[in-house]
Amino acid sequence: MPSWTKLSYYAAILSGIFFFSAALYFADKMFQLSRQEVDKSVPEYRHHFVLVPEEVDNDYWRLVEQGARAAARNHGVLLEYAGPKQANVEEHLKRLEISAAASVDGVMTQGLNENQFTPIINKLMEKGIPVVTVDTDAPGSNRIAYIGTDNYYSGFIAGKALLAGTAGPTYVGIITGGFQSAHQQLRVQGFKDAVAEESRIVITAVEESRITRINAAEMANKILTEHPETNAFFGTSALDGIGIAEAVLQANRALDTYIIAFDSISETVDYIQRGIIQATVIQKPYDIGYKAVETMAAIREGKKVPELNFTETKVLYREDLHSMPEALFGGEGR
Amino acid sequence: MIGEYDSGFKRFLLLNEISQQTDTVVEKVNAYILEKDHLYLEEYLGEKEKLLANKERLQGKIGNHDNFLALLNYENMLDSFMEECDLAISAFKAADIHLYSQHFNEASAISSFIHETTLTLIDKELSSYQPYFGQMTERAHYLKMTAIFLFSGTLIFSALFAVKISGGITRPLGALSAAAQEISSGVFSGRDVEVTSKDELKLLSETFNHMRRSIFELVNEMKDQSELDKLLKELELKSLQNQINPHFLFNTLNNVSRMAYLEDAHETVKLVEAISALLRYNLANIDKPSTMREETDVVMDYFFIQQTRFGERIRFIADIDESCLDVPVPRMTLQPIVENAFIHGVESIEGESVIKLSIYRNAGGIVAEVMDDGKGMASQTIEKIMKAPDDSQRRGYPIKKTSGHSTGIGIRNVIKRLQIFYQIQNVAEIDSEPGKGTTFRILIPHYLGAEGRRSV
């Protein structure tokens, strides 16, 4: 069978050629792989600012970050967004210390409570690092400016909303983010001042959620148990409204309880849709972030800036939801 | 890739070293403040130098797009750290206790930040290694595939080469062994083995071909030889038959000869002596070569005997060139021819006849010619005589009963022996015509000269 031998001979040559080209193909792939290099490029920037939030992975603060990043792009700023993974004053302060040690060009942070934050803010200022406070002011410190909501005002308009939304004797439970936080205190104070003139409004209790939803629910439940007459709630930080709504739903008191929340994260918006939360005080976190970086850049360029820069705040009702711009919502980009 | 791994490891080491150096620096500052020993200050400065040098290496070695920010902070922290250390030292020198403890605490705090940031950087390095590691694995996979395919390809091609090269060796070997088998089965006349390559195999096959040809020739020669042996055996057998009792015959002939002498019958004496000589020559070993002279003598004796029988009816003429008589010839060649002339040529003829024996030299050599004017032969008969030996030798020589022959050696036997003896085909020729007589010539090639070729 000479044709068979010939055939297998050609088959062998063909497969040999195939194997060699396969080897070449893989070798080529291999070399192409090794050509991928690390990006050694270094971004160009004029200023290096740090934004230290209360909690890094928080819907509200993510919005602030977005605004800050947008402003950073426009002003040639290298923005560092760093802070505690979960709300923790110790870590927050340490972050600021680190920023001081790292000699950044500017620090933007909250003045969560005067006693603990004033020294470090002053220390930064001494080292020549300008500080602006965002979201929460520390007026007693040497900070150059404050950018954010007028917290007292935001509490005040919440109180006004409660007055408008209720009739007859109303017993109000307040859940606040933290007794130590200046901005929370201001909100509570504003609320109290707004309702003080009306004697039908009684504040039954003020409890602290320490910015967790579970605590908020627990405290709301506690108020409902200890003061069963309570028929209105005000939550002064973003997660408080949700916690209150959960506790109220669980106690089957949703129909006769008037709830005012704070901020517009997606769950809060959901509860407003369902009519469980009646109103919420909204801030403009994106604006806060944007303005903070803008202000800081102006400071670095030696311009004079106003000390207090309030961003818009208002009360949002269910009927406002459809006309609300998306950027106001937190959560997953709603 | 390996280089990347290596440099990555070096970066870890660098980061670790820096982190440890900050500790050492703090220790030295602390030691200096506590012990107030100048030696510690020196050591502190030395450590600080090293730390600075390492810091210089940082950006070039580690910096990339992802960890840029952390690295920037890290470097600034190192600066702050050293600044605080210097401040602590100078405050200590100025004996400002409050200030130096504050700066020292600051330095320790920064050193702890540095540790932390070191970990962060290492963390970032590690996570930036994730894709690298993936790439490595992929690359290793591709390398493996490349190696496998390269190996397989090489294997196949080398197998092909091996087959081709070994084929170049085994094919001629196969042809050679086939030819050898042919030879062992007795066929020597096959075609030559052809080898195209120019190596030892070519030499081998050429030698083989040559050997085969030689064997072929030798075998043919051997066949000739054995045939000759057979013919000689036949002659011996015949002569043995005649040799019933040669001593008795010789003694008797002697007695006859002496008796004839005593009786003064001289013709009878001569006749008996001729018979005796003829008999002796005839009985001698037929293997031994003879000369033309001896052959001629025998012919003369024979003729003398025949003369007594036929008397004047047959005349014998001998025309012999004496110089030709020393040429070697096989024994019993000339006599059978003459006898043939008697028996088939002239015996049955009434009236006078002539038989002439002439030996002479011509251009081709020596010619022994026996001529008679007897009844001659038809050309078919001549052809039969000339060609027949070839056929009869294959089939075995038929021994015919020939009446009246003195030796019983036929013409064909003579021709065959002559052919073998001189190794040529053309040794005899016959001219004859029915009724006019026959001329038989033995042609001895000239170049043989006086010395014979081989014994017969």
Topology of helices and strands:
The complex is a heterodimer of chains A (334) and B (456).
Chain A: H1 2-35, E1 47-52, H2 59-75, E2 77-81, H3 89-101, E3 106-109, H4 114-126, E4 131-134, E5 145-149, H5 151-165, E6 170-176, H6 182-196, E7 201-208, H7 213-226, E8 232-235, H8 240-250, E9 258-262, H9 266-274, E10 279-282, H10 285-300, E11 308-311, E12 314-317
Parallel strand pairs in A: 1-2, 1-3, 3-4, 4-5, 5-11, 6-7, 6-8, 8-9, 9-10
Antiparallel strand pairs in A: 10-12
Helix pairs in contact in A: 2-10, 3-4, 5-6, 7-8
Chain B: H1 2-35, H2 38-62, H3 68-93, H4 97-184, H5 200-242, H6 246-262, H7 266-283, E1 290-291, H8 292-310, E2 314-320, E3 328-329, H9 334-346, E4 353-362, E5 365-372, H10 379-395, H11 411-422, E6 428-433, E7 437-445
Parallel strand pairs in B: 2-4
Antiparallel strand pairs in B: 1-3, 4-5, 5-7, 6-7
Helix pairs in contact in B: 1-2, 1-3, 1-4, 2-3, 3-4, 4-5, 5-11, 6-7, 7-8, 8-9, 10-11
Folded structure, characterized:
The complex is a heterodimer of chains A (334) and B (456). By secondary structure, chain A is α/β, with parallel strands linked by helices. Chain A is 47% helix and 18% strand. Chain A has a 6-stranded parallel sheet, sandwiched between helices. The longest helix of chain A has 34 residues, at 2-35. Chain A starts with a helix and ends in a 17-residue tail after the last strand. Mean pLDDT of chain A is 88; it is low at 329-334. Helix content of chain B is 68%, strand content 10%. Chain B has helices spanning 2-35, 38-62, 68-93, 97-184, 200-242, 246-262, 266-283, 292-310, 334-346, 379-395, 411-422, and strands at 290-291, 314-320, 328-329, 353-362, 365-372, 428-433, 437-445. In chain B, a hairpin with a 2-residue loop joins strand 4 and strand 5 (365-372). In chain B, helix 3 (68-93) crosses helix 4. Chain B is rod-shaped, with a radius of gyration of 62 Å. Classes of the chains: A alpha/beta (334), B alpha+beta (456). The A-B interface holds A 9, 12-13, 15-20, 22-23, 26-27, 29-30, 33-34, 36, 38-43, 48, 78, 80, 94, 97-104 and B 1, 63-66, 68-69, 72-74, 76-77, 79-81, 109-110, 113, 116-117, 128, 135, 138-139, 142-143, 145-147, 149-150, 152-153, 156-157, 159-160.
